[in-house]
Amino acid sequence: MAQKCEICGKGPSYGNIISHAHNVRRRRWNANLRRVRAMVNGVRKHVRVCTACIRSGRVKKAA
């Protein structure tokens, strides 16, 4: 399963860890995803969405 928000499409971002001795290695920052039950096209469905979408109200939670 992809680490991607089903609402906004936010996924992992990539960069470097740089130590004090300037040793560089790659790392990735994953999106903060939560599995919630939401209304999608009038149907209750489990979706993986980022917490930014949940907080902003872009996800209509199912009762």
Please give a handful of descriptors for the protein shown:
Ribosomal Protein L24e, Chain: T, 44% strand, mainly beta
Describe this structure in words.
The protein has 63 residues and is mainly β. The protein has one domain: Ribosomal Protein L24e, Chain: T (Roll). The chain has one helix and four strands; from the N terminus they run ββββα. The chain has one helix at residues 51-56, and strands spanning 13-18, 24-29, 33-40, 43-50. The strands form two sheets. It has a two-stranded antiparallel sheet. The chain has a two-stranded antiparallel sheet with strand order 3-4. It is elongated, with a radius of gyration of 16 Å. The relative contact order is 0.27. The model has no long low-confidence stretch (mean pLDDT 95).
